[in-house]
Amino acid sequence: MNDKFERISQFATRSTHTITFAVTADILEAKSRDARSNSRKREMLALHRSSAESLQRMLNAMEPGSYARPHRHHVSPKVESLVLLSGSIGFVVFHDDGTLDLESSILLHKSKGALALDCRESVWHTFFALEPGTVVFESKSGPFDANTDKESAPWAPAEGSPESATYLDGLVAKFRKQFPINPSV
Hints:
alpha+beta, seven-stranded mixed beta sheet, single chain, Jelly Rolls
């Protein structure tokens, strides 16, 4: 049964499937609804059983305006892959000094961009939803240790800070200039 989830934080659930899990349109909608209703505008559904697994797999539902501070997986180097399931994502890469590397940034969009991406370890990055109902399948090397999983960019505002919304708006504007798509998308 793939509709059994246990809440593991106010922003995340974990699937309790024992054999297989099918990602359906109903699940994408449920996770998007959860993202819309929480303060981060983001909801994660873990498909791995524990943080000790060597491959972390999850659905990440995001709404426009959700800010994930730029970061890199450097202390414990990890690669990260995203597959677009619905909506659209701006995946932004940065140089070490915090300037945008738009040449390496990617639009995930079913008709106007890529459908999936793979990001090498130790690359500064963030991603954001460009339209409501955005969900990606994300995989990352494990195990997960909150103390070493990611290094937050010192040049970017902290999540939840007063400056974060303005910073995100600027990133989105620069991204949309490089990847011109319909503003409603």
